[in-house]
Design brief:
This protein has 266 residues and is α+β, with helices and mostly antiparallel strands. It contains 8 helices and 8 strands; from the N terminus they run αββββαβαβααββααα. The chain has one domain: 3-Layer(aba) Sandwich (L-fuculose-1-phosphate Aldolase), CATH 3.40.225. Bound molecules: manganese (II) ion.
């Protein structure tokens, strides 16, 4: 017989979430749902693009929705993937073809805990004109620094790919060009932003798009005075402490008050 005072296992008391994700923190799932809707409302994703977050309980796994438009994602659509980009457990659900963007960046970057991939429009020109780098034009884009690297898929997939990151090899090639940075442009395709948490990755994705739009407008007026390296680094450090301020506004705008998973889809 067991001693009468033996405590019950705490895991037995854990409320069971409705998400497909195995053993995922319901609060993290909720945050990921909010991120999906915010990115749509802020014009970063449309019917395409996706956002993931590393599983706080298992660094070798991450959470990502099944293949669908981000604005329509609910907690029930969130799945768990391993670092090979395979769903855990295996599923009949359709999964994003480009999930290897996420899995290979998580594999390469222990510091990265969230990834946003998008085709946000203002960024596209900077991915196809390599002589004009995307760089920090104002303090909100300070994290961009002096230049953002461009991934050339022809270097990894040859001259006739469909431009998508369809396997681990291409994901790893993209992660190598991202290197230790916050953002990588993808020529003729889009961009990918990473962060130390979900809110930072979303912040970077939003302000990569805004900075690109403003940079294009400024360049039409004349020679641009960009942030210096020191200004960019200092602005990035300051803004990294202010991400919650933007997040709360964006979440309210995209999701309304209260928990997002029970709210109405956009
Ligand atoms: Mn894509």
């Amino acid at each position: 017989m067991l001693p009468a005072e033996r405590p019950r296992e705490p895991s037995k008391d854990k409320p069971k979430g409705e998400a497909l994700a195995v053993a995922a923190d319901p609060a993290l799932v909720e945050e990921l749902v909010a991120a999906n809707r915010i990115l749509f409302r802020q014009g970063v994703v449309d019917g395409f693009g996706h956002v993931s977050v590393r599983d706080g309980r298992d660094a070798a796994r991450f959470l990502l929705a099944r293949s669908m438009a981000p604005a329509l994602v609910t907690a029930a659509d969130v799945m768990t993937f391993d670092l090979d980009g395979e769903p855990v457990p295996p599923t009949a659900n359709a999964v994003y073809a480009e999930r290897f963007i996420h899995s290979e960046i998580y594999r390469a970057r222990a510091d990265v805990r969230a990834v946003v991939h998008s085709h946000s429009p203002a960024v596209i020109p900077f991915g196809v004109v390599s002589s004009t780098p995307l760089r920090a034009i104002y303090h909100m884009g300070g994290f961009l620094g002096r230049s953002v690297p461009i991934f050339e898929i022809r270097s990894a997939a040859g001259p006739a790919s469909d431009m998508l990151i369809r396997d681990r090899t291409l994901g790893a090639a993209l992660a190598r060009v991202l290197a230790a940075g916050p953002v990588v442009l993808m020529r003729g395709h889009g961009s990918t932003a990473v962060g130390g948490d979900l809110r930072q990755a979303v912040y970077r994705a939003v302000y990569t798009e805004v900075n690109a739009r403003l940079q294009m407008e400024a360049m039409r007026l004349g020679p641009v005075v960009y942030l210096s390296d020191d200004e960019a680094a200092n602005a990035a450090a300051t803004n990294a402490r202010q991400v919650d301020r933007a997040w709360e506004l964006w979440k309210m705008t995209a999701c309304g008050a209260g928990p997002v998973s029970g709210g109405e889809a956009l």
